[in-house]
Design a protein that fits this description.
Order of helices and strands: HHHHHHHHHHHHHHHHHHHHH
Radius of gyration: 22 Å
Largest sheet: none
Number of helices: 21
Shape: globular
CATH class: Mainly Alpha
Helix content: over 70%
Distance between the termini: 36 Å
CATH superfamily: MFS general substrate transporter like domains
Structural class: mainly alpha
CATH topology: Growth Hormone, Chain: A
Oligomer: single chain
CATH architecture: Up-down Bundle
């Protein structure tokens, strides 16, 4: 029996490694880098800059409200499915043209924010940060659609594609974050942001180098237009009304039609709640490190550099585990592990700034974050239709971001309410995943019934 399990595990690893021999996964990795990079500008770097500028925990928490746009990008996601940008579309295609435009606007805002002083002009800094967030959130819509469309119907590579997207995201987030914190004390945050602007130019080169995915999106959308003309009795003289209906209404109707209202609402509720606890931890991690006594250099070395290596290894392991046990089980295991990892930070809060404990916490946190994120992205990809890829994935991802951004904005207030008791704060964040796991058990059962019914028919 033990030998059989070992052989099964070895076969799983061989299958997982074989599934990565595809150039499309490298394209997904590059786009993952582009997706993760703006979070350096808005999250860890900005938290470090605000902390060094003397802003309060509550102010830093509220500054994170700029992330609300990631929760709202589904509102304009239909435009990325339907509008073809002049000049850029003929040269780059639907997805790359939108990505390059957003990166260009992000470049301008990043250069501008380098010349601000958040300690004296927090409002102006916040407006520029909001601009970066808007362009980043819009870019994410196009990048997520790109990942799904370039894989197409190749279900074997859904988990590897999710893993490469996650590895790319953490590469784009961790390596620039390491460089920023390692040099912040020497050069100052304004120079760091000018350096970050140079990295955006590199990301723009990536966008020009990758291949635009082939798909049947236009044909499926035209079929939806024809159906609405018939159902609504719209004449040929009303093409704009048909276009608007298919663009704005059909992506959401299609999602509920395929899953049913009850299951669809259960899925959306789960997505909203799943990563709230992780978001509370993430928003306050840099202020916590600084209050405990870690330097910018230690944060760079342990949280960014060690975390990046750990994330790559653990993401690959997570994709193999998800291939073997399935997405739903992978999500459940990842949720439990994610909650348990928050307890490591409670340990640091009680023990003080011990480097070896910091490294252990980073390793555990990166393992659980990578594992759960691969399962989460695979789950959202699985639920996304092909006609309106950008819109439906954005709907699901934005709900996850809504829970993370709106609720996590109160993370600083929660620490203050607890009297600065960081250990209790992290214990509370570890319990936040419980409602999502209860929902997941019900959603998983319903989805399995749905799959069985399709197979029977």
């Amino acid at each position: 029996m033990a030998l059989g399990k070992q052989q099964g595990a070895a076969q799983t690893w061989r299958e997982a490694l074989a599934s990565y021999q595809d150039i499309r996964l490298f394209f997904i990795f590059l786009m993952g880098c582009a997706s993760g990079f703006p979070w350096v500008l808005l999250s860890s770097n900005m938290s470090g800059w605000l902390s060094d500028a003397g802003l309060s925990r509550a102010a830093i928490g509220y500054f994170g409200s700029v992330f609300i746009v990631y929760a709202l990008n589904f509102l304009w996601a239909p435009l990325l499915d339907r509008i073809k940008l002049p000049i850029l579309y003929p040269l780059l295609g639907q997805r790359r043209s939108w990505i390059l435009l957003m990166q260009s606007l992000m470049l301008v805002a990043t250069i501008a924010i380098a010349f601000t002083n958040p300690g004296q002009s927090l409002l102006f800094t916040s407006l520029l940060a909001m601009t970066i967030a808007l362009t980043s959130a819009t870019q994410d819509v196009a990048i997520d659609a790109y990942r799904i469309e370039i894989i197409g119907e190749d279900s074997v590579r859904v988990a590897p594609a999710a893993a490469m997207g996650v590895i790319g995201w953490w590469t784009g987030y961790s390596l620039p974050g390491y460089l920023a914190f390692a040099n912040a004390d020497s050069y100052g945050w304004p120079m760091i942001y000018l350096g970050m602007a140079a990295l955006i130019l590199v990301l723009m080169v990536f966008t020009l180098l990758i291949k635009e995915p082939a798909n049947h999106r236009d044909r499926l959308q035209q079929a939806a237009e024809a159906r609405y003309k018939t159902q609504l009795g719209l004449a040929g003289s009303q093409p704009y009304l048909v276009w608007l209906t298919v663009t704005v209404v059909e992506p959401f109707v299609d999602f509920f039609r395929r899953n049913g209202w009850q299951l669809a609402l259960g899925i959306l509720s789960f997505v909203f709640l799943f990563k709230v606890g992780e978001a509370f931890l993430g928003r306050m991690s840099v202020p916590f490190y600084k209050e405990i006594g870690y330097s910018n250099e230690q944060i760079a070395e342990y949280s960014k550099l060690v975390g990046w290596f750990a994330t790559i290894a653990f993401t690959l392991a997570g994709s193999a585990i998800n291939i073997r046990f399935g997405i739903i089980r992978g999500l459940f295991i990842g949720g439990i592990a994610m909650a348990a990892s928050n307890m490591m930070f409670a340990w640091i809060a009680m023990a003080g700034p011990k480097p070896e404990l910091f490294i252990a916490a980073i390793l555990v946190d990166n393992f659980t974050a990578a594992f759960s994120t691969v399962a989460f992205v695979s789950f959202l990809t699985w639920l996304t239709g092909k006609a309106f890829t950008a819109t439906q994935y954005a709907l699901l991802a934005s709900l996850g971001n809504l829970g993370r951004t709106t609720l996590a904005s109160f993370s600083g207030e929660l620490v203050d309410t607890l009297g600065g008791n960081w250990a209790l704060f992290f214990v509370i964040t570890s319990l936040m995943v419980i409602p999502a796991l209860i929902l997941l058990l019900w959603v998983g059962k319903k989805l399995q019934q749905q799959e069985n019914n399709k197979a029977a028919n």
